[in-house]
Amino acid sequence: MADGGHYYNEHDDRTAPQFRNRKGRGSHKDRSYDRSRRDRQRGSHSGGFGGPGPRSRLDDPDGDVTMSDNSQDSNSQHRFNPYGRPYRKGEGRFDRDRRQGKGGGGGRGGGRGFRGGDRGGGGKARSGWYKVTIPHGRKYDKKWLLTALENICTVQYTPVQYHVDHNRVHFYVDDSSAANALHKCSHKITDTDGYKVEVHINPSAPPSFLLLDLKPEHLEHLKQCMAKRFDGSQQALDLNNIRTDPDLVSQNIEVILNRKTNMEAVIKIIEENIPELAGLNMSNNRIHKLDELAELVTKVPHLKTLNLSHNELKSDRELDKVKGLKLVELWLNRNPLCDLFKDQASYISAVRQRFPRLLKLDGHDLPPPIGFDVETPTTIPPCKGSCFGSDEIKAHILRFLQQYYSIYDSGDRQPLLDAYHDGASLSLTTPYSTQNPSRSSLGEYHKDTRNLKRLKDSTVRFRLLKHTRLNVVAFLNELPKTQHDIASFTVDVNTYTNTLLSFTVSGVFKEVAVDGKSRDSTMAFSRVFITVPAGNSGLCIVNDQLFIRMATTEEIRRAFVAPAPTPSSSPVPTLTAPQQEMLTAFSLKSGMNLEWSQKCLQDNEWDFNRAAAIFTQLKTEGKVPDVAFIK
């Protein structure tokens, strides 16, 4: 059921159980409701409906009927207040069938959830529309979520009316093949916490805005009404409680600004006729979201005063959608969000964070803002690569990492004993989450995680800290076999003295199964090594902190682009004299060591010029790892 932009279905936990499970709805009540609904659609106003039926009195997507404010139908038991709380008793045949397990399309297979396609009519919505639900989707960025779905969905589609309802995200598609393909995307996307994204599909009535569009003749009346409400001397438009405007009511036109299409129609009229608008009053319109008002930032750039008082804005986060406006006066009083702040100072602070130039709030003068009037846009500088401090330290670290991970990714990690100090310690951490770890690809690491946000018991914390090099390497041997992408490594030196070197290395890796094949899931790691000098320019680990998480979509896209080098016992196998001469020349020209120079030449069939061109391109793109230059 659509109610003021909120969407409910039979599985919604906000649907009161006494309505869902209530018995005794006999056929007489349903026939009475259907008959009264047909009468209203034909224009009848029996029982005190004020005015003829064509005034947008169509069923809403879930079968509810919109009535005027002064309706007094004493014969009907099924009143519906378009701004009230949801009422489930008599939504209409579609919803009744759906609750009884008949689904949206009748016939066999109804009520069993989405099965895709049009097989036998079961699972196919009568309207041809399907509702896509992402549980816990609120925590995801809209652009990231839609892009991730589009990348793996086998059918192109257009998401319609994307919106957030509590913790869920919903949107609609009007194609059964797209709905079927999206259904198959469930549990195929991994978020940054390592959990799979669920995708639920259900047959649905058309989105509400498709049934609530204003007709062309209505738009003309609306335009004339807005013209009367416009004050040219002040460049101000007063849309206060526009739904009750006599000019619109006399024409049976209902303009409700908490409907997406109605608000879009108003903004379009403003854009086309008064783009220089300086003041806009939208009070008393029961507005609960500001998604459509975000367009004012570009379409009405000179807007200085905005009145949103006496509406239903519940969170100050809604203001983020219009914070691009350069407002000097704003009215928000008599909105639920005003009750969320402990005092007036925190309220003013929260609003001024979005509108730093604001001088008046709810009719009260504010102290002048302190800041710099800088119009130059600020961009985040690009992420830099590794930071070593000096070339000498760089050579030590890169040599150490190449040796360490060649052993770590081999079948036997026992030789790593030589890399650790006798009293070394190691800890493993994974992201904190309240969800079931077994559902995550990080499940094998969760049992050993020493996340201090998750563990409060000091005894357990101590037990999960691995002490002495024997215990450290024994623990590393129990972890899944891996393949690291050395080209993805980024190194940052934290501290270095003559007796200590601390650095962080980050990158991505895949787990390797017993048969040698890597698994689908790509993971990311960040590892802090604290080392001391050992032997001849070597390093010995005294502390090792390993953090593992699921890789982001961008990290997965860039991972393992270049094939991993295969270490050989001899860096220069037997070559012909011309090949040896070409290898030496290429190594000198590129700066790479002999092993990587040979690999580049072999990959390009010993074509010197082509290999040089490929090397130059990859180096420009930053895809040649630092280890290629260690000689």
Summarize the structure.
The chain has 631 residues and is an alpha+beta fold.
Which strand order do you get reading across the main beta sheet? Answer: 7-8-9-10-11-12-13
* Percent strand: 15-25%
How large is the radius of gyration? 33 Å
Could you tell me how far the N terminus lies from the C terminus, measured between alpha carbons in angstroms? Answer: 69 Å
Spatial shape: elongated
- Extended strand count: 20
- Report mean pLDDT, rounded to a whole number: 76
Unreliable spans: 1-125, 564-573
Structural class: alpha+beta
Helix coverage percent: 25-40%
> How many strands, which pairing sense, and closed or not: the largest β-sheet?
7 strands, mixed
In DSSP terms (H or I, runs of 4 or more residues), the helix count works out at: 19
What oligomeric state do the depicted chains represent? single chain
Overall description:
This protein has 631 residues and is an alpha+beta fold. Residues 1-125 and 564-573 have low confidence and may be disordered. The chain is built from 19 helices and 20 strands. Helix 17 (577-590) packs across helix 18. 28% of the residues lie in helices and 17% in strands. The chain is elongated. The strands form four sheets. A seven-stranded mixed sheet has the order 7-8-9-10-11-12-13.
